[in-house]
Amino acid sequence: MKHFTSISEFHRISGYEPAEHPLLSLLTCQELTYCSFGSSPITTDFYMISLKKIKVGNFLYGKTNYDHDAGSLSFVKPRQVMAINDIELTEKAFVLLMHEDYLLGHPLHAEIKKYGFFDYEANEALHLSPREEQIMWDLYHQMDFEYRNNPDEYSRDIILTHLASLLKYSQRFYKRQFLNRSPLSGTTASRFTDLLTAYFEDGLLQTEGLPTVKYLAEKLHTSPRYLTDLLRQETGKTALDHIHLFLLGEAKNLLISTDNTIAQTAYQLGFENPPYFSRLFKKEVGLTPHEYRAQFLN
């Protein structure tokens, strides 16, 4: 696996002209006619934000091939694995490469880590409407103007201000995407519950332990972060919240229908630590497992 520590090395291997800044690069379709790093995955020390439509070739990010829809914005964070093979892009495209060190000492250094879409898989890229795409291009052009202008003490701050706006718009447009996809994704919560039910009925809680969000996301062909954001938009609860609520629902049934001890109930539900099970039960139900069972015995 090839790891790029610098943007200049990435430019050189890609056959691009040298970047204007060692920690920042802004590229458009003129420079991006072709790009390939062979079949081996690569990682970098920089953020990559790209608006593109792939004419031919393959962009593998996580375990998923990038879909080729027009106006798709994707986000890659440092040290995330991707593969770029024989890519040719159509007319309107831009890629912003920003080394993580470019953010040092700026509020965006911490803020950028809060944007969950840097953890989405490529097929969960942001699909933009023409109006939204124009907003992104306007922000890109403003960054590009500062990037290619004579730099001064204000240049980095102005560029990062525009980048912060781009990220905020992206967050807004992702929420729109969740809502627009509701006819397709509106059953996510029910499919999620069906998976949990099957996991329980197949006895996997005893053999495999508690199901993880990652495991369930893979079953639903999405990334853990995107699944959590989709469920939160749909139901107001995260994927982990849904797992806990399902398990506690089963726990309630076991507590009033069996004579198992609290520890046995916890183990049956995949909890390796019975005290943790009791604390979670108390937090969500408002009673300890003993108190919950006692009210039915009385």
UniProtKB/TrEMBL annotation:
Q: Which GO terms describe its molecular function?
A: DNA-binding transcription factor activity; sequence-specific DNA binding
Q: Which Pfam families match?
A: HTH_18 (PF12833)
Task: Tell me the protein's name.
Answer: AraC family transcriptional regulator
Annotated organism of origin: Hymenobacter fodinae
InterPro entries, alphabetized: Homeodomain-like_sf, HTH_AraC, Tscrpt_reg_AraC-type_HTH
**Key words of the record:** DNA-binding, Transcription, Transcription regulation
Q: Where is the signal peptide, in residue numbers?
A: none
> For this UniProt entry, which segments traverse the membrane?
none
Tell whether Transit peptide is among the UniProt keywords.
Answer: no
**What top-level branch of life does the organism fall under?**
Bacteria
Domain HTH araC/xylS-type residue range list: 194-295
Answer yes or no on keyword Transcription regulation.
yes
